[in-house]
Batch of 4 targets.
Target 1
Amino acid sequence: MKELSPVPPDALAVEARDLRKEFVRKDRKRGKRRVAALEDVTLEVSRGECVAILGQNGSGKSTLVRLLSTLLLPDGGSARVFGYDVVREDKAVRRLVNRVSVEASFFKKMSPSENLHYAARFYGMTLSETSGKIPEILERVGFPPDRRTEPMENLSRGMQQKVALARALLTSPVLLLLDEPTTGLDPRSKLEVQDFIREMRAMHDSTIVLCTHDLGEAEALAERVGILDRGRLLALEPAEELMARFEAKTLEDAFFAATGRGFEDEEDEMDAEERKVLA
Amino acid sequence: MRAVARKRRGSQAEAWHPRVYLKHELIGLAGVVERNVYLTRRYIYWDIAFFVWTVANTLTIVFIAKGFEATGGSIDVDRATTTLLIGAVVWAYLGIIFEFLTETVAWERWEGTIEYTFMAPLSRAMHLGGSGVFAVLYGLVRAILLFIVVALFFGLAFEDANFAAALVILVVASVSFFGIGMMTAVLPLISPEKGAQLGFVAQGMLLVVSGVYYPIEVLPGWMQWLAKISPATYALDGIRASILDGASLGSLWHDIWPLLIIGAVCIPLGLAIFNRGEVYAKRHGKLKRSG
């Protein structure tokens, strides 16, 4: 059972070669057409590294995360996670990866504790394992004990996001994919989440791919910063080198120099994930 | 701390042994059952309301037997009432199986959890199997309660009934229903807007050809041919024979073997269809939440 092999010690955490993903877009004027969400992206992430990917809405960040987490099939190129191909060895990849996205997605009528118990079962954790571990993890992410049994729908977005982080931590992922985990959070919750990401790396030896809008967050957490623009990876290097290369004082200036557009400008194109996809 | 993490990785590596792998799969299956227990508990008033609606709906059907006699027709009212009741109960049971399996995708898409479920290291067979196991258990409880309530309402006596044989037939038929349910569960995956409704269409089509309230002999020839490959036909026939005539399991073999064969075909076929639907959804980016 090759796909059930353990983590190879020398493999790169992420290795993408000419990775490409297209969606079919419906347009009244132009009819059906294929739009590239990712175009020939090549990148390598070493084990234990934290890499931030910066990009506007629709730049392809979420598509990259979905490809690496086996939720999308690429239209070209290849991607490997710790040596396992995301298409051919998807189950081996799924054992090593977890993800926190901008939407903290849960069964809203179920409590945080119930949602975590359910999620943990999918990773082979028994009731005896989770009954002790879940309260411990919820405490670590700063979730109030007296609200563990409330339905998720009664919780603030910040609290829901803490539960999402707890869900990811529960499965001890070797590769953690963070897709705008702090978007929409208040400053305090944002800092708490950032502290938690640092803790994940320190305690769990996790490799982190962080897709974010937040330039400060990228600079503070990541060893290397990538710029993804309209599906193309324009740069991937330490923040200082990136700023030096573009003779910029800030990451925002570097982003502007690399893309020719301001970081906060919205793209004309809809987010690739939001595009109307047709059969 | 890193040493602790590496130790955990070590135990993760041990998990690749086939026996441990199977254990993980079964824990995952139990997780789906556990989730549905949580949700049923949270939505208990919906369930009660839906049960009351099902009872009322069943009564409207079963009263037809009394109505026929009242308007001058000549029938064995108790036998006709039981025949209709069995049809209505099987309809309700099948509805629950299909609903749970179709909602495996539709509900998760609505809640936004579908991506987390599909990126978990659980095989699709166990994922859907968990929904199927819960659906069968929940459906059996609901069907038995429905049968008892309506039978008491009409004061039906079942002196010769062989309820154990009826239960066995229903459980054996559930394997086929589960397989067909997997085929309908794929519909919300490939068509987020219309998929769940198409599941109800499939349920209706299955029952209309299976003699749910009438003998299949009254159907047009082409529908009778379809009745022969519908598991509901054999389920209804066997359950009616065991409850109305007290037929033993041995004498119901002519209903059981087709159910076993249809089940043996439907499960792998349902899984294969679902897997193809999953590939399609991943190719076209349809796993993302919509609605």
Target 2
Amino acid sequence: MPLTLASTLVQQAHASLNPASPQVRLVDRLGTAMFVTAAVVCLLVFAALLWAALRRRSGAEPVAGGRQERPMKTAVLLATGVTTVILFVFLIFDVSVGRSITTNPGNDALQIRVTGHQWWWEVQYRDSLPKNWATTANEIHVPVGRPVVFELRSTDVIHSFWPPNLSPKRDQIPGNENSLWFQADSAGVYRGQCAEFCGHQHAKMAFLVVAEPADQFEGWLARQRDTAQTPTDSRARRGKDVFMSASCVMCHAISGTSAGSRIGPDLTHLASRRTLAAGTLPNTRENLTGWIVDPQAIKPGVKMPPNQLSGPELLALVAYLETLK
Amino acid sequence: MTAIPADPARPTDDESVRRQLDETWRQTPGLWGWLTSVDHKSIGKRYIVTAMVFFVLGGLEAGVMRAQLARPENSVLGPDAYNQFFTMHGMTMMFLFAVPVMTAVGLYLVPLMIGARNVAFPRLNAYGYWVYLAGGLFLYISFFLNTGPDTGWFSYVPLAGPEFSPGKRVDVYAQSITFTEIAALVAAVELIVTIFKNRAPGMTLNRMPLFVWAMLVQAFMVLFAMPWVATVTQLLAMDRLVATHFFNPAEGGDALLWQHLFWFFGHPEVYIILTPGLGFVSMIVATFTRRPVYGYPAMVLSLLSVGFLSFGLWVHHMFATGLPQLGQSFFTAASMMITIPSGIQIFCWIATIWAGRPRFGVPFLFVLGFVVIFVIGGVTGVMVASVAFDQQVHDSYFVVAHFHYVLIGGAVFPLLGAFYYWFPKITGRMLSERLGRWNFWLLFVGVNLTFFPMHQLGLEGMPRRVYTYLAGTGWGPLNLLATIGAVLVVVGVLLFVINVAVSLRRGALAGDDPWGADTLEWATSSPPPPYNFAHIPVVEGRAPLWEQPGELPAVSGLRTDVRDVLVTTLLDARPDSLHRHPPPTIWPLLTAIATTILFVTLIFTPWGAVIGTPLLLLTLLGWGWPHGRDHQEQRMVEQTG
Amino acid sequence: MLILAVVGCKREERDFHGLPSGSAITNPKVREVDLVPGGAAPADSVPGPYEENAYAVSQGKTLYNGYNCSGCHFQGGGGIGPPLMDADWIYGSQPQNIYETIAEGRPNGMPSFGRKIVPDQIWQITAYVRSMSGLLRKDVAPGRTDDMQVRPQEQSTQKAKPVQSGIPKSAELP
């Protein structure tokens, strides 16, 4: 199921110019209007400048005051007036767009808690029953056509949640809870990236938002709520033993097992994700193996240390992780 | 003019006047003279050169960054090195180049433009330069010792706090800002007092050149803005060194407090950088269109409005932090409002050009370039002033494009124009016109090629401060284009340096007034003598050299054997009193060294205060030790024999 | 200036790859007790690799809380496990002793983490543990965390001169 990163990221092209939600569509409209106006203003000013500088003049020495002052005064006043009007219009436009994208979406909205960590995204789907909570990492699924409210937090430094096709950004500030909402109106895979400098691997802290039809979304959520499958294959079973006895359990949780640490990403359904390492690598066997052996070669500075598993242990471990769908 | 009795202290013939003034005011020769100088021109020149060295260093840092970003997943710089590079680039450009160079040109030119012999407090001026140099050296030496700051020039907490930035890097950040802020405040005080109290008689406030107005506004902005950054960096240093909790939410602090306090300084800071640039443009436009700038009152009021309004915009740097929408909209309104006075100035300049007879010398080319680049930056500024749009492009390359356009367009281009314009006055030689044109066009094309693609990159989702990006994002080609543009910029700047080096030795000799300009600095020789003017001029209009061609009326009756400076009233510049200026002295340098010892040791141990403070007090004592007037007079009389 | 230079470089290093896995330093062989026939012999001295590296010590602090050392030792005050911010050391205060304690475990409840925590990280935690009683230089020891303050920051902690406290009876070798 993992898509190649290239096709995943094709959606990224012209990200905020490629709206997939009414919110971004509105902001896009505002942006386009401002851009067109800006371009016209620039061209007018440049034209005026060039004309003023290059126009042909009669030989007489200029005199301050006199005949020239009247038209100059009119021109400057007119230009100032037009500028003021344009600015005022955009002020109104902006306030109205701002209100539209921040009005409460109502009780029908799905709520997702996204917590920023250095340098990955903890994604939690809560519910009135704690046993229905689903925790995953770096990949968010949303149903098409339903508003989704994000509760944005951080456990360490300031991060910023920004999926440009779907929503303007909002910072995740430790000690504060921020929120934003959007509604995906077309299915697709959209990429976002952390937008507040957060340390060494700020550059590789990306996430995917998968917008899918409501029934597919419900199916995905149900699978995410399940505990991990017990492996049947002998190699995978050995891999599970490796996971439990080596350093993996110190940081990673797999629900349904005794691995319960929350300081690293939850791996219960690792194999269902399209990417690894916060959007850095496509989720393939080779990439997963390479990541486990030496994460520092891929994301230098990340908190996961290089591993010293032997060859067979490593292969067994990867076989186990691949069963975590 | 009253009859003056013959008096050896007041010779009447021109040559002996100049000779005696020279003996009174000149700098001591040699290295000692350079270290003890209190001459604003000597200090101004070294200030400019130091700032330009930092400009080149900052540019080199940017060059390496662009080399790293030219291709996806490049390996020129790893993440830790890149973080240090982009932080150093920001700090160098903002704290060590942009503000100091404007200050420096101001300190050099303002006394000349207002007909004064020196700035109001000559020793303080020297102290300001040495502290600035110490701060720059402290930052760069730390950088070379792997202790350079790495959290960005605005260094948000909690990343820059004690938990997430171990070691001394951020302490170096906090303390190096202290140095540069002291230097900036010193310069602000100098400029304000000099402009208010040392103007030539007859130069009422509404006869002051527009550049002097710009520096006055800038100095007041510095006075009100710099203390905030000095304070907030000390709060950060305290959190890191003595476990205070200003920015610790768990103990009642707030991470957003940093942002508010920093940006309350940070936004006026960029207008502090811009305003002198606007002053340069006014002077160059007047000279190169051969008429005064149209709309003097509107220009002055615009400068004042920009200065005032700039303090009400700071939250536009925080639109993504989750502050209430309505409150943010207030800052949208203010950010858009400040466009109006900036626009008025541009319209007035265009009107001036229209009404005048432009000459397309290199300074004028830079002014044209300024209008194009600054206006592009200005309109993208209006775009990011809008909350909703900014929430898309905040912290992306769109903003990087915006601020480079306004800073390079609004400050660097006018600055280079100013260099081409005033180089003859400072050095006595003209810069090469031909090299200047190449310089201008390479920079103009290079800047646009480097930064225009960044608008698109930001809209495509590329965030700031990333040491690399994945190939699949498709950001490679535009980044490569930007890097190519950066190469052009580097060549352009190199040409400028070459032009300066060559012209210093082989440039055409400039006379007093090679451009036929209208302000007082062109009424003395190039370079000016240590005493600036043989006779303090009396001013009767806004453009003294145009309105009173030939000989200017001058003040008589001033002594030439002592460093007496005329003090005039604030509004109307009527002669008021005399101020005795100090001779060259080593104490400002020693005080700066003591200040350095105090600040640097403080980040390593609180004992730094115990070591540094007595040293500082000692040097201040030496500085302020009274010299009797008679004692000084006697010395001067002995010298002149 | 030169001292500052050398010291600064080591303090600020951020070595993401850590120690090479085959090196002697990752698996020190140290004696448990100092008693040897023929009088005291000098202890093997394996210097901790991160005693002067501020980045590593701060990583150690993060791991100390992340790996739940604080669950028994709290923030140095002790509880289920002995305190770590005082001057008493049962098994020695040298880096190699602390490394052994973490990697091999000790009688009376200290688990063996050698298979669970990679050597590089054990050295980081070791360095942090030493900072808790003020044994590291001030400019290397960490500052406060962004949490509720329950102990003075390590960089202001007075050095508690290590003292060999007696090995508890239940932990003595037979």
Target 3
Amino acid sequence: MKNNPYMLWGLVIIAFFSCVALLAPWISPLDPSLIDGQNLLMPPSARHWLGTDGLGRDLLSRMIFGARISLSVGIIAVGISIFLGLILGSLAGFYGKYVDALVMRFADIMLCFPTFFLILAIIAIVEPSIYNIMIVIGLTSWMGPARLIRAEIISLKTREFIQAEHALGASDARIIIRHLIPNAIGPVLVNATLGIAGAILLESSLSFLGLGVQPPIPSWGNILIESKSTLGIAWWITIFPGLAILVTILGFNFIAEGLKKIIG
Amino acid sequence: MANLLEVKNLRVDFHLEGRIIHAVEGVDLRLDKNETVVLAGESGSGKTITALAMTRILPPNAKVVSGEVILEGQNLMSLNEKQLSSIRGAKIAYVFQEPTSYLNPVYTIGEQIVEVMIQHQGLARKEAGIKVYELLRQVQINDPDRVFGSYPHQLSGGMNQRVFIAMSLACKPALLIADEPTTSLDVTIEAQILKLLVELKEKMNFSLLFITHNLAIAKKIAGRIYVMYRGKVVEEGPTARIFDKPEHFHTRELIAAYEKIGKL
């Protein structure tokens, strides 16, 4: 860890935000949806450390609860995409031939769509809730992990220890799950940490466009959108959620960088 | 002695960029219970492919064209993939040339052997663990505790070969096919491994099909020798007769090579 400062700082940052998210109900100073008509657009002060928004809600409390939404969207969306990517990628890599052709051409088709507009189109049809966002982001981002895992498995499946497993009578499923995937997972993990950062950003963008997490549930993205109309007079509503997004994504990128170094 | 294995007219073709290469052209072999037979021949003579074809664990571009492999009265070539995988490891086990690359790098030695035992014998994890210690002692590993928790790259080639032998014998196979198991090891270790295989054979009552290009080994361990040349068995007979009156020129070449080294 000492000679891997990226990993260290990445973990520190993500651990910090994860704790904040997990402990939100206990550490947030005020109710995030408590409207206080007396204190609209208050700058940071002793009572409101990060100030208040246009409805007098405490920005710090909203951001603390927003961390829950943003992080869980990131992690679960990437979880879905890795899960799909692992299954499809390993089937394509292991069986090759027409399975490979079918899966990878499908992936190519998916990659042809500009993801963001595809998500917008889907969200326009289904209602924009945080679960739908997670699922849609997951369903539109499995192609990267699938390609990575496929490439790894193609190069691993001819290795001697896999041959040895065949000779010892292991089934295909066993070889894929117990022997190929654990050896192939490294680059996918690096990709996943970057993916989480991307998903958080995507959720923020969607929320910013009003198609993400719906108010009054706070997410970093939809706090940002609310700041748009008061940008000139209340800088804090824009700066702090923006910083939170920036630092979290930086943290995940650091972890990805650190993992890359460890895996070599 | 009772007949254990009979290979009749085995033919294997390789498909290479549209060309068909006859790697094995009608090989007949016979092995009795508890017998040691050597399959000798130069590189590329088809001895490894013959061995792999017996349980159809050939590379994807190779195919058994015709022939029967009869193990204890059952023709393996008529079995489907699933039935065959219950023969692999359980009835016919293999030991290969480069032990370290035939072990999965991400699991400890203990985990790998436990896996095999759970899979084939349906043992509980704990029970399997105890049996693995027994096995490691049987292959004359003096410090099973250390080896159990080590990864393959932490052990020497000779040690890994012992481990691999232990893994192959975990399910008490009737036939062990050793494909040049000592070629990558140095001479003193080679002698130890050979001695170990012969001793284990006596103790555990399996038949040994030993593949080598080194007739010095054949002379030491084999009851009978098959000599392969360009995909065919060109000579077959008891070891003493082969050395006294070699009939085929390739047999004479192999003997000459062995004697030449003796004279150096």
Target 4
Amino acid sequence: MSLPQPAPSLERHAKREERGPAERQERGPAERQERGPAELQEHAPAIRTVGLCKRYGQTLALDRLDLTVNKGEVYGYLGPNGAGKTTTIRLLLGLHRASAGHAELFGIDAWRAPVAAHKRVAYVAGEPFLWPSLTSAETFAFFAHLREGVDVAYRDLLVERFQLDVNKKVRALSKGNRQKVQLIAAFASRAELLLLDEPTAGLDPLMEVAFRETVIEAKSRGQSIFLSSHILSEVEALCDRVGILRDGRLVDQGTLAELRHLSAQTIEVTFAGRAPKLDDLPGVHVTNVGANALHIEVSGSIGAVIAALARHPVVALTSREPSLEEIFLNHYDGSHSDVRD
Amino acid sequence: MSAISGALAATHTPRARARVAPARARALALARRAFRDARTRTIAYASLFGIYSYIQPLAYRDGYPTLSSRLAFARAFSDNKAIRLFYGLPHDLLTVTGYAAWRVGGTLAIFAAIFGLLAAVRAFRTEEESGRMELVLAGPVGRNTAYLSSMAAIAAGTVILWLAELAGFLAAGLPAGGSAYLALATVSVVPVCVGVGALASQLAPTGRAALGLGGAVLAVLFLARVVADTTSGVGWLRWLTPLGWAELLRPFAGARPLVLLLPLAASAGLLTLAARLAARRDLGTGMLPARDSAEPRLGLLSSPAMQTLRGERGSLIAWLGGVGAVAFILGVIAKSSSSAGISKSLNRELGKLGSGSIVTPSGYLGLTFIFFVLAISLFACAQVAAAKREEAEQRLETLLSLPLSRCRWLGGRLLLAACAASALALGAGLLAWVGAESGGVEISLTKLLEAGVNCLPAALLFLAVAALAYACVPRASGAIAYGLVTVAFLWDLVGSLLSAPSWLVELTPFAHVGLVPAQPFRAGAAVVMLAIALVGALTAIWIFQRRDLTGA
């Protein structure tokens, strides 16, 4: 990997951007893998996918995904079951082969040079399948043989923090405890990038707190984290940026502030008498809550709504930014405001 | 409720989806589910039963058309302990039916025993270990219902085996009534071994341990029959083992149907006991204590191959023990093969049956070592099946997310399998020599080690074939690999008998294995097979590196 190569052409780099996103990247392995001498890889983002597609038979599981996760960033990857989150991670790890497009970790092609890429990556699988006859301690020892640079002192600290009995065999552990084994092994590796696939499934609330603490520690050390999840509070609390995946497509992406800005604001109003009709205002979605209260969602400016409300006897009014949950539901279910509350 | 409605929906009964099914429908749905789950095994065994019972009578008729040739055959075989070891005590070798009862009944009874054990452990332990039984029992299904449903599924499978064997005999022109009775004698072994497996499943906490325990019991039951058939004065031992009962039923040789009461009583007793134990214990546990905690032992964790060795060492030791024990016994009884009274022409006739020059100790050993080629080839398939399990159970995903190449993972496993196969082959040679020495046969250690090594080219070829199947079609790879080994072996036995063209007969690798020590080692064929094996293994690794991981 670190063979000295002719200076990387930035033109070539730029050219790649011009290619159509769904266009299949057929390129010699030498060019791909050794494109980056150390300096270029220094600047490469932790994750970069270009037009990444995955088709399983007739099903398009992932559709032209363009994704960049910078170094030191915690990226929340949201989507309901079956949206393509795990598929994305499998492509990032080179476990499945992209139908089109490509994925790079630190500038290293995920499919062509998986071993070089994995030296810098740790993974927590969605289902904690491990070797039933090994104890946790033996599992850690096995992983340590396969990866250099495990921080044993930090691992011991994590074992303490997650309250794991390392002498229990994996087959006697509950799902949550097996998940802890995976998490401890991943974080103790001190890998530069952590790919976490629904990592807190099965953890109790106390362990969830321990998990968040560990993520924040990793972030403070400059590690990048790709957190696939559908637990919105977790993503809201931890992530710098969020991507929302739906049916294999990235439908929205940005910081929470950006996503909020683009989404509807919520206003709840209570009137002295019967609630008026406000449906005819543009960009406004109104739901009646009882006889004299309204739940209003406004995309864009709220000036027109305020002006309309001023003509009615308003008793109480609250306005707030949308929660991540609302942003999320907004992307998934057009009729979301009707089922709220 | 959701679990059981799931199980019911899986069987596509519209009634089940509509409302809560009555108890009997629930039990039926569970039984159907279990039957479906076992379909691959049932089909494989039924094919074996049908083909074997069809081919053997044909081969006998073709090989020994006249009374005089049959008399000579009977004289050579009826007192040959070395032959009895495999097929049991012959009662009548002068008729096709008597021959079928001995050769087909004796062989298939052993397979019936294995079928019963596998089916029982799968139904009564593996289902529980995987957590599926918990889902079923969380619905409105009692333990007894679940137990009986599994039993019903196994019973249906057994009936299919019976029908397959009967169909084979009928196709070969044997009389219907006697054939039905002979097939019944064969499958009478199944319920007893189901009982053994069910009991082992109550005792052992894991499927693997249950198989080990049940397998050990089966080995003892087989050994009892072997001793009874080969040692004078201990014929009564036959009354203690289901494999002996199958002989004592004496199909086509003065039938004694009352003996059927023995397997009936034994299986009823074992199954009732197992059901009692199943009803008393905590779900997911065995009666024997499981060690769930242990101080870390850090040996054999340095690489995936070493860790595989660590996980598989129990089964490796069992294989070594089994192969070694059989090799030792073969060595001991090789002495009793004698050439007295056998004409050259008969020897050639014997050759047609695939029995070679059975009448000398080295001829006998040369012939029987073909069974080690078969055994070690099956062992190789089992190693690839273990690799496939690693992928299917998604542990491979975790492994390959580490800085570990697919080439190193699969290559390491194949290399380990090749080493283990070599250990088996050499172990067989060594223990056959120890047995022969103690039996008083003059034969050199080198010669028998050579016989062991002679097993390897074909076995490694099948290892590569299994690896290719795994790389290309992981889900079907087990069926393909085991199927090819079995078909190749049977084809070697019967191909020439069916007067197939020689190039067709020589398609099977078994045709190219010299009967060492009776015949010389065929170096040319061995080199070709090893070369194919190497190319096959490298191709398998190449393909494996280019496909999506499965599972999930």
